[in-house]
Design a protein that fits this description.
three-stranded mixed sheet, about 500 residues, alpha+beta
């Protein structure tokens, strides 16, 4: 098959540029889809990042209701196999238990994406139910990092991170309940924004009171693509539990202006958790870069009981997830999760949370409140807080201690161990505040490493403004202009 563009040309375009080529009549949405499908065929045998390509919408991008007049004009887009449903399409959530599951309706966000002109043309990998650190169960699939296939992408937006990093698509869907947009973005050299609570809908089957911590988003390679995605897809479905944020100026316009001089706090000491010296050095390097842009940077930390916050976060995950499993069991007519179809830690989470009392949830909610108030007070004095994306480097494939295939008999100990690694991302979910991972740093082994910035609730635009300022200062060369070894331009 003859492709519309060379791979070097393809990889040089972001989603905004591709959409403009379609609007100018230089390319068609079908040609974009065919090129992305060819990129999947080229890289997926090595990375195992895509579960399925929807061949019918590759051939006919308008088949499922894509709006060709939307800002993305048919740009190919992959959906994480978790979160917003696509009517009639498989959504198996990385689980043997969910094999053959076909939702019967589009989610609200699915409709928003299609209205924006995104061609939802396939599914990307995720760990079972999005719970653990990596899409790494040999009985399902093992997703590998395109920078070095001996390492994980981390997760839970595993396949998305690999496909964007490998140059297959300029953007791809991701979700984040505690870092699942930002951590794989950080380990794969992508831009990953977790928006504020109240930006993207999880309706109609879920509401923010049931989710509390989970948010939707994307991975991209340019700030303007992320800004355009938020502008085009934000907003609540009818009957949302809470109000949804609006912005007086589209982010695509806002990011064209530098922010004023920002008060940026710096920390790697996060409750009981500390980053390795190598990663602290990368954080300090980023801080000096921001000082060079004229910002004030100083070590500071919110006055919150972070130990209690992580305990409350664990309670939230256990109780929420247990009820999700209960719902699946009820549909299947089962009393408990089948051990041959659901991974061991997920069964233990269900056991720990299925009978959790409202009194325990009430205590959890009180800590959510006190933590969010403490972060809110902190952001009265500071614009942004900067941390590493994680406290530890990227694990190698086969590191089971963070996986839901782990044989750890104590689910609380498993979570405690997870927080020692994923130390800096979960509390922004608890507080409902925006956070972004930017590919500014590098690990000693050559893998990318994200610098993580958080801001006050609904200040997503400021994070994007700062990211755009950094991008301009770098001449657009995130990751020092490097590309991973597994890439559409390679070989």
């Amino acid at each position: 098959m003859t492709l519309a563009m060379s791979w070097d040309e393809w990889a040089a375009q972001d989603a905004t540029a591709l959409a403009e080529k379609v609007r100018q009549g230089e390319l068609t949405a079908a040609e974009l889809a065919q090129q992305a499908a060819a990129g999947i065929a080229k890289t997926n045998p090595t990375l195992t990042a895509v579960v399925e390509v929807f061949e019918d919408v590759v051939a006919d991008p308008l088949k499922d209701g894509l709006n060709p007049q939307g800002p993305f004009a048919g740009v190919p887009f992959l959906m994480k196999d978790l979160g917003p449903t696509l009517k009639g399409r498989l959504q198996e959530q990385g689980s043997l238990f969910m094999r053959g599951n076909r939702p019967t309706e589009d989610a609200w966000l699915t409709k928003q994406m299609r209205k924006a002109g995104l061609n939802l043309m396939g599914r990307t990998t995720t760990p079972e139910f999005g719970v653990c650190s990596s899409a790494e169960n040999p009985a399902v699939y093992v997703t590998r990092n395109p920078w070095n296939t001996d390492f994980t992408t981390c997760g839970s937006s595993a396949g998305t991170s690999a496909m964007v990093a490998a140059g297959v698509v300029p953007m791809s869907h991701a979700t984040d309940g505690g870092g699942s947009i930002r951590i794989p973005a950080g380990f794969n050299g992508n831009i990953g924004l977790k928006p504020s609570r109240g930006v993207f809908s999880i309706g109609p089957n879920l509401s923010d009171i049931t989710g509390y911590v989970s948010i939707q988003g994307c991975h991209s390679r340019t700030v303007r693509d992320t800004a355009a995605f938020v502008d085009a897809c934000r907003g609540g479905a009818p009957g949302e539990f809470m109000p949804f944020w609006t912005t007086p100026e589209p982010y695509t316009q806002l990011i064209q202006k530098d922010p004023g001089r920002l008060r940026i706090a710096l920390s790697h000491e996060w409750g009981d958790y500390r980053a390795t010296p190598e990663l602290v050095a990368e954080l300090e390097k980023a801080a000096r870069f921001l000082e060079g842009l004229g910002h004030h940077v100083e070590w500071a930390l919110p006055k919150a009981d972070l130990r209690e916050a992580f305990r409350a976060q664990t309670t939230c995950y256990i109780s929420n997830f247990a009820q999700v499993i209960n719902g699946l069991l009820a549909k299947a007519g089962l009393e408990r999760p089948p051990a041959d179809l659901i991974e061991p830690i997920n069964i233990r989470i269900w056991e720990a949370g299925k009978d959790l009392s409202y009194a325990e949830r009430y205590k959890m909610q009180a800590v959510f409140n006190s933590t969010a108030r403490a972060f809110g007070a902190f952001f009265e004095d500071w614009d942004i807080i900067l941390t590493p994306i994680t406290a530890l480097p990227t694990p190698r494939i086969g590191t089971t201690e963070y996986l839901t295939t782990s044989d750890n008999p104590d689910v609380l100990d498993w979570f405690d161990n997870l927080w020692k690694f994923f130390s800096y991302t979960p509390l922004s979910n608890l507080c409902g505040i925006p956070a972004i991972s930017l590919p500014m740093a590098q690990q000693a082994n050559g893998l990318p490493f994200g610098i993580h910035a958080q801001a006050r609730q609904a200040n997503d635009g400021l994070l994007l403004q700062l990211a755009a300022q950094i991008e301009r200062a770098l001449g657009g060369r995130w990751n020092d202009g490097r590309r991973p070894g597994v890439h559409v331009t390679a070989g």
